[in-house]
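SEQUENCE-TO-STRUCTURE ENTRY
===========================
What this section holds: a protein sequence and its matching fold, both as plain text.
Question of interest: how does this chain fold, as expressed in backbone structure tokens?
***
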Amino acid sequence: MKEKILISACLLGFDCKYNGGNNRMEDAAIAALRKRFELIPVCPECCGGLPTPRTPSERLGDRVVSKTGADVTEQFEKGALATLSLAQSFSVKAAVLKSNSPSCGSGTIYDGSFTGTLVPGDGVTAELLKKHGVRVTDENALL
């Protein structure tokens, strides 16, 4: 039986990215993951009730704000909790999440200025998963 892992749905080609598109990884990378793991796709932002497409958001300290200035922290936290619940339901120990995202970023995220500036930090979901013992990586540093 294969180990189950969470994976950002956008990395598998689901059109759930803020602009309505996706961040699909190369077919060979997806195939390699599928050989080793049972993949459980998730989009924390959609789970939190945000629409697709949606205004881009970035993490600003403990808050998440959209480019228009709206505070969307509550939706990001709701999505993170739903993702954690999914992980716990399937006894997931690892996740491959979208790099730099305000929800999924692991190690670096955009700084909240909407200038493309990256800073050390984790997205809301990545941070919560890590606090609960889930190993988080991104598509650039696969398991």
